[in-house]
C-alpha cells in the first residue's frame, strides 16, 4: 500500500501549479522572479522537487498517472517561467531602446571615374577571350601614328590642322600627340611574334571644338588579334561576345562597310542597344601592308582589329548628355558612379 | 555628298522606295546622313569615305545602285558638234610644274548666250544645295556633280595673251578670287595664269577677273588633274574649301578629265548655243594606270570566313567595272577601272565582293577559343593605387594633358627642362604638355569649392611628358612617367598618410626628406625617395602643404595638402602574390615611453633608433607617436617630449615582464646613443 493517495497528490500538484503560475505572472522585476523561481522550480529545494519526492509514496498502480500529472504541471510551470522572463527582459530592451531610424555613422567612399569604369569593363570582358591590356606612349612619331598604319604622306589625316604636332627643332622628325591607340598595337607587334591578342587603351587627341559630343582629348580601346587563319567571322563573333557581355543579354552586331587605311576590309560596327542600331566603332581585317610593316608575313598570319570610343559608350551607358562633364571633375558628378 | 534621286534615276532605275535605296547604300558603304524633299525631288545626303571619290558624283553612286539592285546602268556618251576651227587656234596651254598638274585640257566654245539655266538643271542643282548662277557656270557645276570631275569656265576674252600657264604660285603673289576677296599665295599652291598673272587658284577657285559674266561671249573650259596635296595646301591655307577642292584632294577618275570636258561642252552648246571649236588643247598626260590584280577564288572565304561562289565574285566585280583579263577558274586576273584607284590588291577585291554581297552573310556565332592572359604589373599597380585612394574617400578625376602657360610656370618635380608645346592648342590657351598633374588637380579642387560640392578631394592617374635630356634613352619619343597625384583638404600629414598608404600597398620602402617645391609652403614639403637594391636612391614622389599664394590662385582655403607619386618607379614587381605571415597566437604587451629629445630632432631618427634596438626586429609589432609636447619650464629650453607607443609581440611565446623590460631598456639605450634621448618619469 502506498503512503500517499493519488487524490491528495493531484490536489497538491494542482495547487502548486496555480500558485507558481500566479507568482511568476506577478513578478514585477528580475529579483522577485528569481525568488519565485527558487521557491517553485529551484533544483535543490524547490517545491516542485518536493512534490516529485511524493511520487515514490504512491501506490504502484497509481504511479503512471501520478507521473503524467507531475510532467504536465512541470511543463506548465516552466512555460510560465519562460514567459515571465521574456516579459521582464522586454521591459529592459524598452528602457535601453534607441531610434533605429537615426542616420548611420557617415563615412565617405571615393569613386572611380566613369571613364575608367567603362574601360575596365571592356578590359575584363576582353580578358576572358585572352586579350591582354597594353599601354604605350602618347607622344608619337610619324612612323607609329601614320606610316606603319599605312597612312601615307598625302593622306588628309596627317594634316597639321587635324593633329596636335609638337614644336620640334628645324629638321628634326615631327612628333605629335597620338590620334589613335593603334600606335600601341604597332609597338607591340614590332616586339612580339604572333599569335597575339591585345587591347590597347588610353588617351588620344584630335583637334575638335569641344561641345556636347566632341572633346579634343578622349579615350579609345582597341582590340587586335593576329593568328593564322583569323577571319571576319571571328571578328564578328568577338564583337558579339563583347556586345552581349557589355550590354547584357543576347546582343546582335552589324557590320557596315567603311574605310580605314590600316584595315581591309574595313567596317563600322553597330550594336543593337535599346531597340535600335547604335554605332559603336570601327573594325576590320588588319591590312597586309600593316602586317608587313611590322615584319609579319601576311601569307602566314591574318588578323583583325577594332576600336571603340570610350566617352561615347560611357555617355550612353550612364545617360550623360554632355561629354564635357567627364572632364569637369565635379564631385557631385563623380559620386554618382 | 547630296544626291538628287530624280537625277540619279537618269542613270539607273532601282524600282524600290527611297528608304530601301538608302538602306542598301548604307549597308554597302555609303552611310546615310539625311533625306528630305525639295519640290518634287528627294535629296539624300550620303557620307562618302575618302577612298571613294568615284561616289562624289551621281554616276558613281548610280553604278553602285545598278550592282546592288542588279539593274542596267546608262551613262551618256557626250558628242558636242565641233566646228572645223581647232581649239588650239584660240588658246595655248603650258604646264610649267608637272608635279602640281599632270594633265590639263582646254576647250573653247565661241558665241554663247549667257542666261538662265532651264528648270530641269536649276532644280537639280537646287536639290543638292547649289544655287544656279548662269547656264555656263551651272553646266560646270552640274557635270562636276555628275561625274566628280571639277571644271572651270573662263571668259576667254579676259584670258590675256591667249595662253594658259599652269605653275606653282610665287610666294607673296596675290590673287582676287570669284568671291572678290584678295589672297596672298605661297609656293605650296598652284595657279592657272595667263600671259600676265594668275586667273585661277588651281583646283580651288576661279578668279574674279575672268569669271563668266552676262556679257561673256567666248568660253574657255578647263578640265584638268591637280595634285591633291597642292590643292589641300591652298584650300586649307586660305580657308577656301570648295566642292572642287574637296574632290581634287581625293583624286577624281583621271579618265573623266576628257569625258567631263566633252559633256560640259555639249551641254553648254545645248543650253547657251555657240560653236565648239575642234578638239581640246592638252598639256601633260593622263596620269594613273589601271591596276592588274590576281584574285584566288578561295581567298574570299579565307578572309571573310564564309564562302562566295566564283561565279558570284565575277558578277560583282564585273558590275563594278572591273574587267577579267581571260577565262579563269581558281585564280583570275582582274583589271581595275580608272575610277577605282583605291583597289590595287587582292584583299581590296575581297572587300569589294564582301560589301556588295553584304556583311550580314557573315555569321556572328563563330566560337572563339579562350586563352590565358595575365594582368600586367602596370595595370595591377594602377588598380592598387586607385583602390587605396578610393577607399579613403577620394574621387578619381580626369584632367587635360595639355595645359596653359600659367599651369606650366610651376616647376616640375620631374625635370628641369621646359615643357614641350603643341599646335594647335588643345583648348584656348592650352598648348603645353604638362610635366606635373598637380596644378590641374588644384584647379579641379577649386572648381568643386566654387560650386559648393561636398568636397574636392581628388586623385588622378595620368602621364606627364618630359623632354629627354639629350642622352636619356628610351623607345618612346618623350619620357612619359605614369603619375598618381592627389589633392586633399587637411595639413601635410593628411597627404603624407595617403602617399604612405599607396606606397605601402605597392610594397615600396621609401624615405621622406625635406624638400622645396613651387606649389608648397616652404618647410612643409618633402621629397619621397625610394631605396633600391644595387642602385642609387631615386625620387619617387613629392608631398606637401599647398602654399597660401597657390591656394588663393585656385580659389581654395587651407589647409590643403597634395602629393604626386611616380607609379612607373613604384610599380609592383613580379607576379607572385604576397605570402602570409601568420598572426601570432601569443598576447601583446603595450608600453609607452616618454622620451625627451632636442627640439630639432627628426622623427625619422628616433624611429630608426627604436627599430634598430636589439630584439626590436623580432618583437616590436608596432610603433606609434602618441603625443608631442614642448614645455621650457618642465623639459628645459630647446627640448621636446615624445610619447611613443610600443607594442611587443613574439611569434614563439608569451613575452615575460623580464623580456619586455629588457626590450624597453634596449630601446631607451639605443635612443640615447643615437639621438641623445632621455627617458622622462
Walkthrough of the structure:
The complex is a heterodimer of chains A (337) and B (681). By secondary structure, chain A is an alpha+beta fold. Chain A folds into two domains: 6-95, Methane Monooxygenase Hydroxylase, Chain G, domain 1, CATH 1.20.58; 114-334, Bira Bifunctional Protein, Domain 2 (BirA Bifunctional Protein, domain 2, 2-Layer Sandwich), CATH 3.30.930. Chain A has helices at 6-26, 30-41, 47-54, 63-95, 114-128, 142-145, 182-191, 232-247, 288-293, 310-318, 331-334; strands at 132-134, 139-141, 165-166, 175-177, 196-205, 217-227, 253-260, 263-273, 276-286, 302-309. Chain A has a seven-stranded mixed sheet, sandwiched between helices. In chain A, strand 8 and strand 9 form a beta hairpin. In chain A, helix 1 runs antiparallel to helix 2, helix 1 runs parallel beside helix 4 and helix 2 packs antiparallel against helix 4 (63-95). The termini of chain A are far apart. Chain B is α+β, with helices and mostly antiparallel strands and 681 residues long. At the A-B interface, helix 5, strand 1, strand 2, strand 3 and strand 4 of A face helix 2, helix 6, helix 9, helix 11 and helix 12 of B.
Please describe the structure with a list of short key phrases separated by commas or semicolons.
heterodimer; A: 337 residues; alpha+beta; Methane Monooxygenase Hydroxylase, Chain G, domain 1; BirA Bifunctional Protein, domain 2; two-stranded antiparallel ribbon; 10 strands; 21% strand; B: 681 residues; Phenylalanyl-tRNA Synthetase, Chain B, domain 1; Phenylalanyl-tRNA Synthetase, Chain B, domain 3; 5 domains; seven-stranded mixed β-sheet; 20 helices; 33 strands; 27% strand
